[in-house]
TrEMBL record:
It comes from Pseudoalteromonas translucida (strain TAC 125). Its cofactor is Mg(2+). Gene3D superfamilies: NagB/RpiA/CoA transferase-like. Its EC number is 6.3.3.2. ATP binds at R5, A6, T7, I8, R9, R139, L140, G141, M142, G143, G144, G145, F146, Y147. It comes from the Bacteria. GO terms for biological process: folic acid-containing compound biosynthetic process; tetrahydrofolate interconversion. PANTHER family: 5-FORMYLTETRAHYDROFOLATE CYCLO-LIGASE (PTHR23407:SF1), ATPASE INHIBITOR/5-FORMYLTETRAHYDROFOLATE CYCLO-LIGASE (PTHR23407). It catalyses: (6S)-5-formyl-5,6,7,8-tetrahydrofolate + ATP = (6R)-5,10-methenyltetrahydrofolate + ADP + phosphate. This is 5-formyltetrahydrofolate cyclo-ligase. Substrate binds at E59. Keywords: ATP-binding, Ligase, Magnesium, Metal-binding, Nucleotide-binding. Pfam families: 5-FTHF_cyc-lig.
Amino acid sequence: MSNKRATIRASVRELRNNLSSNQQLIAAQSLKMNFIQYLNGKKNTKKEHIAIYFSNDGELDTSLLINELWDKGHTLYLPVIHPFNGANLLFQRYEKNSPMKANRYGILEPKLNCTQICPLPELDYLLMPLVAFDNQGNRLGMGGGFYDRTLARLHQQHWQKPQLIGLAHECQKVTALPIESWDVPLKTIITPNKTYCW
Ligand SMILES: Nc1nc2c(c(=O)[nH]1)N(C=O)[C@@H](CNc1ccc(C(=O)N[C@@H](CCC(=O)O)C(=O)O)cc1)CN2
Ligand SMILES: Nc1ncnc2c1ncn2[C@@H]1O[C@H](COP(=O)(O)OP(=O)(O)OP(=O)(O)O)[C@@H](O)[C@H]1O
């Protein structure tokens, strides 16, 4: 792993962990509004299949958005670390009463139920956590390579769905990230302040 990536990862993680709970709350409210506005802009009233994540480590808090999306009738999924091929993610249906368990990092995920897994191309949107992003939509994650590995096959094709959208605080933006061959760049990143499109 490049030293520069590790340094950026550590410094941006510290920045976002230092946000106050009030800043986190305001950010979560803005994220909710920005994503709903983004969906409305599609002029499409269909109920979407949306993979999201459960926030951890100072990440932009998705809990308000999750409730709003449920209220609007969309179907939500959360990442589950694959039980056998532990380097990939599965996306499992997430409902208010889904049984949950902590994964190896202490992040809650739905208890594995194979009947509730959504194949990647059936998702409309994949809302992704990230540690840092740059001016060109490159993404640096927590260092597990989970999203990059999960998306690798898709990335080699001209895929339509899911649309990849990164979620981040504005303080997670850096000028330029050192990129690796396996990194999957994003076309959209939503922060509390702005929706970036490339
Ligand atoms: N909220 C959220 N869920 C997610 C991710 C994420 O980035 N955010 N992931 C995105 O891929 C996957 C989990 N990836 C993760 C990778 C590393 C660590 C982490 O805390 N690493 C510790 C070292 C822990 C250890 O090795 O025991 C650290 O770096 O301090 C957390 C999540 C799936 N779910
Ligand atoms: N498509 C891939 N195929 C094989 N290995 C991969 C792939 N993508 C990433 N990896 C491996 O995963 C490790 C971590 O990658 P990287 O530092 O880019 O993760 P990340 O983007 O920070 O994490 P994440 O995607 O989980 O948020 C790398 O050492 C790399 O070898």
